[in-house]
Amino acid sequence: MKPASWTYAEEFVAEDEILAAARARAEEVGVVAIGSGGGATLRFLASVLEARAVVEIGTGTGVSGLWLLRGMRPDGVLTTVDTEAEHQRLAKEGFTEAGIASQRVRLIPGAALEVIPRLTDGHYDLVFCDGDKREYVDYLTEALRLLRPGGVVCFDNALWHDRVADPSQRDAETVAIRELGKAVTDNESLVPVLLPVGDGLLVAKKVWLPEA
After folding, report:
1. Model pTM?
2. Which one, of 92, 87, 145, lies nearest residue 118 by Cα?
3. Residue 113, CA distances (Å) to 21, 165, 199 in order
């Protein structure tokens, strides 16, 4: 794909002033937010699923959360987890600016692998992961427990700055994302696709499997 076509696709769904402000906050505090193409994909998935309950690992300053909430049902609730309480405070600013009712967002500060195990099995329509790349395989394990049959799990940075496709790259994050990809494709309960939006978005649907 030529760069001009990639840019055209990435910017096909434009961001408004509220998303632009959330993105500016991310840049100010050194958070790399999901790109507009990935955000539009999250909104699309949440809309197709008519998502009522969504988990997000990695609140950042609310860019991905805003996209998700715009695709969810009007009564949908986003549960979002981040280790940085200050980032969540900034995210809350964006949610307020967007007119999102406070009861539609549960902001939980803390480490994902300490918080997520406390959430309800089989309750969620979508799980979006954009936290510590080295924990991605563990996030997948938790997501499979959290998702209802037909639910969807998404991982941002699935191409990791073009490093995942380069076998010579062996840093911990790149290796972990490769391991995630193998775990997803090897899992018979998942229908996966790797989308070349932003820095790569790995998406998989949890299908119903009869008991053995």
Report:
1. 0.94
2. 145
3. 29, 27, 24
